[in-house]
Design a protein that fits this description.
This protein has one domain: Rossmann fold, CATH 3.40.50. It is 36% helix and 23% strand. The chain has helices at 19-32, 52-69, 106-112, 128-138, 144-155; strands at 7-12, 37-41, 71-74, 77-78, 83-84, 89-92, 95-99, 120-125, 165-169. The strands form three sheets. A five-stranded parallel sheet has the order 2-7-1-8-9. Helix 2 (52-69) packs across helix 3 (106-112). The longest helix has 18 residues, at 52-69. The protein starts with 6 loop residues before the first strand and ends with a strand. The mean pLDDT is 87.
Length: 172
């Protein structure tokens, strides 16, 4: 039996640019076409504020497993408890949307061991003022003391290498 093609789409950008909103809208559109869509937030794969690179690596590994057979599993990080969950999450589908800082980075593709792992990538942008407002509306806790460390990890990743790259939004 022929397997349906699998697509992997990354939505990347700094914290507060609207990655999750874009991922949800894209997933809804694709689902309305009859496709089975899975959204994976790389935040669930980063084991704390200083592990963005680990989340990117684990995300790349999930993407490689998805590309191979349309499924993957992972142990999410519980940000409220500050530890990796004992529960394993399994997902399967035809389209994987990766939502998170580093999803379209060179380091992500290296972790997947496939420079062409992404079928498309969206880099979302928003001004610092917009991002700050969104973060304060979104999060019920103050993590401003960790924001600089998180964003510096994101800025250290390599970008600008993808042929299927779309950049949307405003910039400073």
């Amino acid at each position: 039996m022929l397997q349906p093609p699998r697509a992997i789409i990354a939505i990347d950008g700094a914290t507060g640019v609207g990655k999750s909103t874009i991922a949800a809208a894209l997933a809804a559109q694709l689902r309305s076409s009859g496709l089975t869509v899975v959204i994976l937030s790389l935040d669930l794969l980063s084991y704390g504020w200083h592990d963005l690179a680990g989340g990117v690596r684990r995300g790349g590994e999930c993407a490689a497993r998805f590309r191979a057979d349309g499924r993957f599993d992972y142990q999410p990080y519980d940000w409220h408890l500050g530890r990796v969950s004992d529960e394993r999450v399994s997902a399967a589908g035809q389209v994987l949307i990766l939502d998170g800082c580093g999803a379209a980075s060179r380091e992500f593709a290296a972790a997947a061991a496939d420079p062409a792992i992404l079928d498309a990538a969206i880099i979302a942008r928003a001004s610092v003022a917009t991002r700050t407002r969104r973060i304060s509306q979104r999060d019920a806790y103050d993590w401003s003391d960790m924001r600089e460390a998180w964003e510096s990890q994101h800025e250290a990743l390599s970008y600008g290498w993808l042929p299927n790259l779309i950049v949307i939004g405003e910039d400073d």
